[in-house]
Fold each of these.
Amino acid sequence: MARSMCWHCQSEVAGEYFCERCVKVQPVSKETDYFTCLGFPRRLTIDPTELEAKFYELSRAFHPDFYQNKSETEQSISLGNAATLNTAYRTLRDPIQRAEYLLDLEAGAVKEIRPSPPADLFEEILALQDTLEEYRASDRASPTGKQLRDKLHTEQQTLEQRKCDMEVQLKQLFFDWDALQDRGEATGEARSERDRLLKQMREILSNRSYVNHIVDDLVATIG
Amino acid sequence: MARIVGIDLGTTNSLIGVMDSGFPILLADSEGFRLTPSIVHFPVSGEPLVGRPAGRMRAISPERTVFSVKRLMGVRPGETGKDTFPFRVADAQGKTTIVIGDHTVTPEEVSTIILSKLKADAERSLGSSIDRAVITVPAYFNDLQRQATKRAGEAAGFAVERIINEPTAAALAYGLDRLKDRAKIAVYDLGGGTFDISILELNEGVFRVLSTNGNTRLGGDDIDRDLVRLLEERITARYPEIRHELKDPLFSARLRELAHDAKLRLSEENGMQIEIPFLSGNRRFNYLLSRQELEAITRPIIRRTRSHCLRSMDDAKVAPRDLDEVILVGGVTRMPIVRQLVAEIFQRLPNTSQNPDEAVAIGATIQAGIISGEIQSVVLLDVTPLSLGVETFGGLMNVIIPRNTTIPCKAGEMFTNAVAYQRSMRIKVLQGERELAKDNWQLGSFEIEFAPVPKGVARVGIQFEIDANGILHVLARDISTGQQTLLDLASAVDVSDEAVEQMIAESVDHAFEDMSERVWTETSIRSNELLPAVKSALTLVGDQLTQADKQEIDALVKAVNEALDSKDIQRLKSANAALDQGTQHLATLLIDRAMSEAERRRAG
């Protein structure tokens, strides 16, 4: 835990939100990640109820309503802390955003990897784009239009199934990641396992958002 | 410690309260009523009258009696919609003003007068001075409307400790004696001028707003207006010869009072006799107005709240069955038809436990108690109602803080120079949910200054902060020193597009020899904006152009490129202008495309 000095009484504070000596609120450091901010380890499975409880507890500590009668410095710390807390909660609450955030934190070796969608998915989507164009140009009430619509509908279901599968895979990866972290080994094997997990997560997350876009587009077109 | 009062500054009525031994109580005004009509009368000489005495002048001196001024707060001329007032609303250099005889007042000043009366009456009743206040605003108020309200409070001599959203305040009033509960509630707040819907989660003293939606010009005033129109039609049907007399301001004011009273009465009764004994000469007007007739007028107005309710549930990711209660506040929710339509929307009977006129003021007082420390077990987490963004290339809105983000919040955005040696860039700040920048509220603009460096090298970080009042602050961060400076948002009126263009044009026209470098840079910036824009427009909508159009645009593009190579300022200026002119059609196509895309997305 980073050590720093209380802005008010200059005594040492070790990452606590309030100085032990003068009880003044301390600014959440810019280097503090959202997991640390909310007091959770860097894990991908988080109990939403616990997260919410922690968010509420810290809101009671930081909300500007409780600093209106304090000094300007404390008011501005409260505002900054509450804003950081709100962003931290919003990011960690959603499992996908949480994973994306963790990847950004842990990236290191895998940061440079810009995954491209696997060939089969890519081709499937290219074909789908053509059908979409065809449908948009067609008379929707005509038999061809209806046929195309049915086809798109089936495609949509296939894609949504694919998305579900990816989410199941992700869940497993999240689980593996957490288990690896819990073991806390510093072996070369553990390191390569770590990179493999990060790489796979990044790939699936990016494919998932790719599929997501297409599904949105589909839904917008066929309603 | 000085006491903090809670104030509901309403369209029709205003109220003020204070915490008393741990309980919120409302104070009566000098006339003995807790509800002070938000009406100000400006006599020809002497001090303005406020509240009930002013209300009595409305039918006698309508052009000097100002009411429903909340609908004009923070609103620019031309944005007043269908509202018509018996007093004169004018445009003074881009600001909405009210003309009283040969004087003018701003809506903000009228609000200050109302707040001053509330303050004076409360001080008299408490026997001590008060200078700190919490003031409510409709949840769907934008940044400009919030700031105007805050300034009005400050001008009345208050330190405005918090601007709080009305439905959130009502939720506090509802939830204060249910602090052990966990529940999801909706607050449906339909007042005289504005409509808000908020979905909240109550969890052991935490009041968290999940989403909010609304319309700041939808309320009881609209019903009054349509009812007046109906009565006018009935009168003209009977006495067509006095049609012109209906427009008389005195008569209009009288009719408006009658309509308003009839609306109130018809919440209790099924029909009422409207009587105007001395209509004109010895003509008299008698009309039995039924509740059904009033409801026929009201229904389309109330139906407009439906889409807001659905959107707020969608944003909060709740279905009607997930809600534990739907709380009604605002005077209009006394109307049986409103209760019926709310029941339809939310598929349940609404909760009418709160006094619809007083809940918001009680809530504001509770918020005052939270700030003063008298109430300790409550945390209020509200959201920003509208997405905040900046205008980007092609006149689109780029969202920086999405709607329903918990406040306070911050978001950083990095801006870089689009062309080499560009010295500055003006950024327009917007609030709203529309795709096109021009369809959103323009909060103002600020200027970023760059060091003279090659394209893409200059970097300025801008921080957008929305505080607990829902008010925006824009800060520029100097990356080398880490120093933050607060930027002033020049109001969109101060720097209209024409003014900016005029400024640039003038600086170009009056260029001296030593300025030619700068003029050249400015002109080439314009070219470098135009060229990629035209290129991307051509890829998007080029297939909708005729071959001849395309060739013409190609020629114009070529002319600009050649002018750029020639380093001839005049030549480049005219080439730019020609390209700009020649691609107007292209811009229209782009906008059409964006619109239909937006439509498509909405339909989906």
Amino acid sequence: MLRRLEALALQVRRAVSGQMGGERRSRRRGQSVEFADFRNYTPGDDFRLIDWNAYARLDRFMLRLFVAEEELPLSLFLDLSGSMDWGRPNKADTARRLAGAVAYVALAALDRVRLTVFAEGPTSGGAPYRGRRAATELFARLQSFPTGGATNYEKLVWPIGRQRPGMSVLITDGLGEPGVDAALAAMQRAQQEGAVLQLLAPQELTPDWSGDARLRDAETGIEREFTATPLTQRAYLNALEQRTKGIERAAHRRGLRFARLSTDQPIDEMVQLTLRHIGLLA
Amino acid sequence: MTVLAPAAAVLGLTLPVIIALYFLKIRRPTRIVPALHLWPNQIRDRQANVPWQRLRPSWLLFLQLLAAAVLVAAAVQPVLPAGAALARHSIVLIDTSASMQATDVTPSRLAEAKRQANGLIDQLGPQDRMTIITVGPSPRIVTAVTGDRDALHRALNDVTANNGPADLSASLSLAAGLVRAGDDARAYLFSDGIVQPLRASFATGLPYPVDYHRIGVSGENVGLTSLTVRSSAQTRAAYLHVQNFGQQPRSVSLEWRADNRLLDVRPLTLAAGQSQDLVFPVPGDATSVTAHFSGSDVFALDDAATAVAKTPRAFRVLLVTPGNVFLEQALRLRTDLQVDVVAPAAYKPSAAYAMSLFDRFAPASLPDGPLVMIDPPIGSQLAGGSPVGIGRVRAADAGDPLLANVDLQDVHVARSQDLRVSSFGRPLISSLQTPLLLVRDEPFRQALFGFDLHESDLPLRIAFPILVQNLSEWMLPPSVPSHSFHPDEPVTIVPESGATSVNVSRPDGSRRALAGAAIATFGDTDLTGLYTVEQTVAGSIQRSWFSVNLFSDPISQLKPLDRLTLPPTRTTAVQATHPGQLEIWPWIALAALGIVTAEWLAFHRGL
């Protein structure tokens, strides 16, 4: 699977500017094989960039400039709230694996990966990861985070705002209150391309129970007596659909891609089909 | 309003039980959901098993309580007082005669009578009994003394009309036989009042009162009341009588057919109450003729009439006499008799004659067959004792049909043989001294006059040709009478000599087989129209016909009677009545079904 992931790359719509050289076209001039422009030599310039043929013709020192190739900063925001610790297969487990797959695609392309998990508040996943060798550490780090707590998307606004222009991927079930809109607005302000990946369990998409029950919220622990009937099933599915469409509209409004994923999909299928389909990977 | 099953009110305990179930709190399994706010605020107790909780107002609770209450109301079987006054034993006399086929009430008088009688059945209480008797040409008990309302409904709905008259006397007598002394009985007569006159046998009254329920509203009817075919030497003609019995002028179109061939169509306009006689030609080869008129009429049975046009086959009759003009003339009055007159000296026995008359002559051996022996010579086979003088003449039995219309008031006989010791048969005409006329049925229909007709003034009286006519028709009835009969009137069929089979085809095409050589009475004459009698004689089929028509002015008059003169009720008859009951539980149960359906819908709509 990792080999198949290496054949993929994050797809950005505009050139990026990273801190270190990479494989992405940069708006800055740098070292690559792709010619960009000429300019006059000024003291302090690298002698190796002087175009000696131009000096012979013009009797002036001219510097030959090339397109710089830089890394892509990828920020992964992973929802590990209490609602994600639910379903068969478990949403949090699936989210970790999905985040690892997306991160590996970036690491394989020498992009820089920053990991942030969140529930009631954001938790940094440590220093940015770069290079394939960092993948093992990142995978281990993903598994080390516990799940639980209520979802608070508003707490994501500050860490998102600190990101340099690049790509951000938010993996969540989108069920927290208030909604994910504040985080998406922050991503737009921080000039983040990227995607919102809504991850739901099959049992959420098609409830497999009926009758009387005491419902307990996975995040808040609030309980409520309830009687499931075909009518209430329809009302629930309608509310879920409205929630999904709201997230999708908000993402598209802010130039972000959106996909709703079910945990019973294989990770390979999510990456190769869904994420490529929405244009996150190429 | 009263209830028939008050004990069922105990089912009302289900109402507090339902409420108690709502007080019970349900034990609900805990289910963790990722987002509680996505689930609607829906709670309903479906299975209570833990006490107690606060009673919450609920549409379901309301509907369930309402349904249970309505079902309990149906279970106690409430009844409403109905209009009719019922006795413990109700006798429904339902008129099924011809006039009940009139359609002046929709769909027919009989259907309306059945509807009203069905309403009476619905009002029967649990202790009440009912008997249903039809009033037709002959009474019929449809159901006898039962309280099974389903059986009564079924039996009543199976009652059909017939084309005959309504013999109310017979039905009342039959009903009287079902009522025991002291019974609380009452009869309900559903009829248009067009019934045969009541017989005098109810002078002592009926053991039950009779409530007359008039059926029908109109007497607007045009009918054919007579159709006869008469032959003369040159032609044959049919005489038809048409009458408008209604109060409004009517225009009809009259069709005239011979053997179903249309011969003539005549428009006819009749004023209110007007009648008209019409003459139609009859083709020489026609077997039957039919008159039929079309137009809107509430009574179809008298809209058609059929008559036989074929002349009946003649009988050969032998009269052996030294001379008797009176007897010869009297015999020739019957058109279907071919009379051969011979002198006693010329008499030769012959099997060709259907009947023989011996006047003052006795053959050596009597022929096998009908005969009339008049004043046999002394010493002959049937001769009586020495002549005796006779005074007044009287009928041995005034009700004997052979003496119908025979007036013996002024008849005198000078002398007669003494027949007191004769074993010939029963006396028909007698005197103080001796029987004068004996008749017998076995071995053949035969008659013996003890006196010479010339020594009596009987041949000078109108009674004589009538007596001869009666005797000849009794001895020699026409094989198939060709005149018209009324519906359900029996027809006597005398098979031809040597007939091996006799079949009768009815107007609807159905066939009835009669016993071969015996005189038979055919009673299946309920349908109007032409009947064909087929006799197989020596391998060939001989056909003869008779017709059945309504031809009844009282029935065609059709106007229902507002009041019907009925026999009085005996003073000893019990006349206690109680109001009828109308059970309403089916409607209440229907309402309960609707409420349960609403509850089901409410449950599935999550109310």
Amino acid sequence: MTDMATGAETPAGLASVEAVTSMLAKSGYIATPEIATAVYLAHHLRKPVLIEGPAGVGKTDLARSVAQGLDQPLIRMQCYEGLDESKALYEWKYGKQLLYTQILKDKIGHLVEDADSLDEALHKLTGFQDIFFSRDFLEPRPLLKAMEQAGGSVLLIDEIDKSDEEFEALLLEVLSDYQVTVPEIGTIAAQVPPLVVLTSNATRELGDALKRRCLHLHIDFPDAELEARIVRTRVPGVSDRLLERLVAFIQAVRGENIRKLPSISETIDWARTLILLHADSLDPALVRSTLNVILKRQSDIAEVAGKVEALLDGGDKAGR
Amino acid sequence: MERTLTRYIRALRSAGAGVSTTEAMDAARTVEVVGWEDRGVLKTALGTVLAKSVEEKAIHEQLFELYFSREAAASAAAEGQPGEGGEPDAGQPGGGEAEPQAGDGEGGEGGDPVEALSALARGENPGQLAMALERAGAAASVDEIRFATQSGYFVRKMMEQMGVEALEARLMEALSRRSAEGDAEAEALMGARSALQKQARAFVEARFEIYGRSAQDAFMNEILAERSFGALGRSDTERMRALVERMAKRLAVRHARRRKVRDRGRLDVRRTLRANAGHDGVPFDIIWKIKRKDRPKIVAFCDVSGSVAQYVRFLLLFLHALKEKVTDLETFAFSAHLADVSRPLETLPFETAMRAIVDEVGSGGTDYGAAFLELDRDFGEVIDRRTTVLVLGDGRSNYSNPRLDVFKQIADQAKRLVWLCPEPATNWGSGDSCLLEYRPFCTLLTHCSTVTDLERALDEILMAYD
């Protein structure tokens, strides 16, 4: 398929939706058709992907796996309240600029020494190349760095919902035109547009302008079959019997009325814990003693601890 | 093909998913990239481009099936039409566009339009019937349907487009002949007419699901939002619940930003020095002091006696839907006496919780004075200077002592005291109402009887924390 959006060459891993799926599988990421389609479209439409969903379902991991699969650098920008352009786009190297002005002060006498009048001295200065605001003194931050990667890159803007609203506005230029404007220098456009992934835990509603510019992907908790596949990929040592029981239990726990539901990362941690404990099946006592791996709130642990037997049984039935 | 897409986008919009022009253009590009062939891929691809939230994804999911299964049927029917195979686009949903064939469809077979229509109604050629329905539907602008009650009108218009008038005239004529032969013909024509009507009705109903359902919902919600809680019927409860949920969500989003107040003029010396240490202490970055705002804390204090119970239900429903925003919420209910009901409301399903609450506090005579006294004595510490105390009640205290002294103390302790009264202002102070006596201590005393009033009041409360 020709690439009408970028005109650039399409990497083999992005040639079709199936190619994306297998590329991600090679990097250890089991993608649903939705995920693979979003990545595929992101490249072909040249649009950023905004991923929303509960914590720990593999939003950040997706970016990492795409970068790995494409063999491109992953440039990560963690968002937080108060993040601004000097941390995200670029900053001037003030120290070097100071040094430069000092050198300039020393040299300036020498430079205008033989000028007779003020006019002539000024004329000489105008001819002098001004490098105070130039690329030499520019410190690229993640967004600019991603624009400058000649071989393409994957730009991960993590937890965009943690940043301020003003920061979203700053992102618009980067996300729609893949360029950064530095007032003193001009516009720096990306040679090869990076594949941009934004993640959000939906702690606040994102602006419409940003959403409109992005493809939207919602990753939810996986179903039992998918979860089992993910855990098997991530924790190769897990036995089939344990895997089946543990995934069934987690799925049952997600149906309970608790505050913080366990996500895939917790399932994986739990599988690792159980392997360390040489467990090859689940019994109520073992589950109770390791509940703190999958549940992070005291009230949730208390709630589930009382129902472990019922949940194990229920999970069993569902598993068979 | 493009028409298929634009009409699908129109359907999405009327279903309440906001699709902008840029997104529509993206959708067109998406289709160019993924093609029409694989419906599954098309569906997920359009989902990422057009639906930008979980709600919108659900709408897309549902509508895509509805819309494209019809599309598929229409195009399959079109392919079955002789002489059209060479022109794949002609039979697409824009069936109404295929004007040149209109003549053939109806008159081509016997030259007699009535005979052709009867043949159509007998379902001898389903493809042709589907085509005729599409055409008539487009001509009658069935896509404009907004209310289920309009379907009769659109069915009739479609029938007229298909030429049912000629059939009816023939029917009348056959009946007026008053012969066995005439009656038999009339019967056949009648059968054809009702078969056609059935087909047209099914067509209109399918369109209503796509284009009208959500418009009707929006209209019903609008009416409901302005209706007094007291006048709500049992059947409205479910819709109301969904409406309250949506309004609460909207409110939470509106107040989601905790605005930092940049206190320009007060330099944060410590942080400025630290930030500029790398620049030799030359202050390139100036950092100002930031004042943080309180998180909202609401103590709701609800009269659940018979006269006000209905109002309380919705206030509590609303408050609990606001949970994301108002994490610090204490709920007290009182009638004969006072009880802390935060726990049952959090753990039990809402209806069960409400019943349990009314059972616990009893529905006897309300005593506001005693309830305030109990609140102050037993739970005084929950009210601090960042708390908004929200009272919901009619202030009718059955002529008991209103205990203004206690009420004043509660008001002084709290950040704000807001009283929502289901009775209109003209009734305040009449009979056993003590509202006018309580009024001087309230930050806000307002009449609140519809969900819109409720939203406005809560908006106002949350505003104090922005």
